[in-house]
UniProtKB/TrEMBL annotation:
Transmembrane segments: none annotated. Its main location: secreted. This is VWFA domain-containing protein. GO terms for biological process: cell adhesion. SUPFAM superfamilies: vWA-like.
Amino acid sequence: RHGPGTLEIPMELVFVIDSSESVGPENFEIIKDFVTALVERVTVGRNATRIGLVLYSLEVRLEFDLNKYTTQQDVKRAIRKMQYMGEGTYTGTAIRKATQEGFLGARTGVRKVAIVLTDGQADKREAVKLDIVVREAHAANIEMYAIGIVNTSDPTQAEFVHELNLIASDPDREHMYLIDDFNTLPGAFTAALFCIISGAESYLMATIYS
């Protein structure tokens, strides 16, 4: 009944996806492929894994919460329909929206996982402070994974990596991943990330990206 590699331990899984100007429309399509590839590895359903998604730039949109879709097909269709936004990067506001609305109605005793995917620092104009919203998420028992698309020639890279460290749950080495190219997202990375999120061996990632 279940495809190979499907995960049977239920999760409440919310994606927090950067759709800012620096991502660009082409890379945004790759991000959609990545999210879809991860969704394909889980059993979606009312008593299985439920999925929510927050899309953000300067505007922060709850595309769908945990209760909205009960089948993998519906989730994938919703991902395909997502529109690229452009503009800035209000990461803090997006994480807060995930905590307060994305995980609304989460089942008691079911693991809560957020995957934050971003390609740059949170906007300096953002009033919401990242460390505060991360504390709120941790207080709500949300396990946070941070995936950063880094540009090694960017002078602000160190600050960006610091932010990703802040977002990622401890231990960081299992919750924070730096990638230098959007194109590597949907392939081996998805498989490795899935193993980690589903509690399989974490050395997989180290092997692929050492």
